[in-house]
Amino acid sequence: MLLIIISISKVIPIIKPVLEVFFMLIAPIIISFFIYYWLRPIKRKLSQGKYKKYSGIISALVLLLFIGILAAIISSAGVVLVDQFKDVFLNSDGMIGNYKDIIQEQLSNFNISSDITKKLASVLENAVGGIGNSVLDMFSGIGDFTTQIILIPFIVYYLLRDEKYAYKKLQSFIPDDKKDRVNSVLGTIDGILASYITGQLLVALILGGLMFIGFLILKLPNSLLMATFVTITSIIPIIGAFLGVLPAILTGLTIDLLLVVKIVVLATIVQQIESNLITPNVIGSKLSIHPLTIMIVVIVSINLMGIFGAFIGVPTYLVLSTIIKEIYKYRFEKDKQ
After folding, report:
1. Residue in 147, 157, 199 with CA at minimum distance from that of residue 27
2. Residues whose CB falls within 8 Å of the CB of residue 284, separated by 6 or more in sequence, listed in order
3. Beta-carbon neighbour count of residue 121 at 10 Å?
């Protein structure tokens, strides 16, 4: 054991740079796979028939179209979002600067003791301040961040262009007697990921749009920023919409408690529409996971990998569970023989 410990201590300086490169690349690779599944249906639709031989050109055009749409959205709404973000999180004279006093004043109307009121106000102030700090921390390592952003379009392009080549290359490593079974598993995993990623994105966009309309009706300040939070977090199933509405609730606390009630009612109505109408029709029954299982997976993923883990926890669980089920089925059939 002592020799093993000493050996590990000697190897760590060699492994550390490799791990740093791995963690720098894992985020753009996962994001690229998400974008790949979003763009793949368009690319495949355009690559049918006589246009198959132009796969590389079509992949580039689809990617450029996506980047153009994204750039147009950022250029039109980006300035507004930045201004609203500064107003909420960075401006000391704005919302955050007076959060504690405003919330204490609102809570005092309920005749709550001053100590409890101060503690609640501190918790809420720290929560909102934490959101701003988390977003800023994402951009703190600007060098790494820039490298990752530059990598993403290249990875997406080669995934779109070379998907058939990669599949054939993978086939060469599979023994002939197991190809049918492995292909079946790979097809199942691919279908699950495609359904989850494309479906969850569409659900998130619909939820964000509904919440934005609701926020405008309620005349909530910084409605676009608050709806953007909902859209991003709604990619996380079940609990994402509730996490996304927290900044709106905290903003409402600084204005009027009745506004908070209205926001909660709005979020509840939209969540019911999502769970009963949107998700069943968009994603369907392909992802038959119990909501409690999803909540546990998301919570464990957040504890292991932070907020990034919340986005990849469920698809990772879906892939692993499919593989484990197939291994168990294979072992059962083998023992039966």
Report:
1. 147
2. 195, 199
3. 21
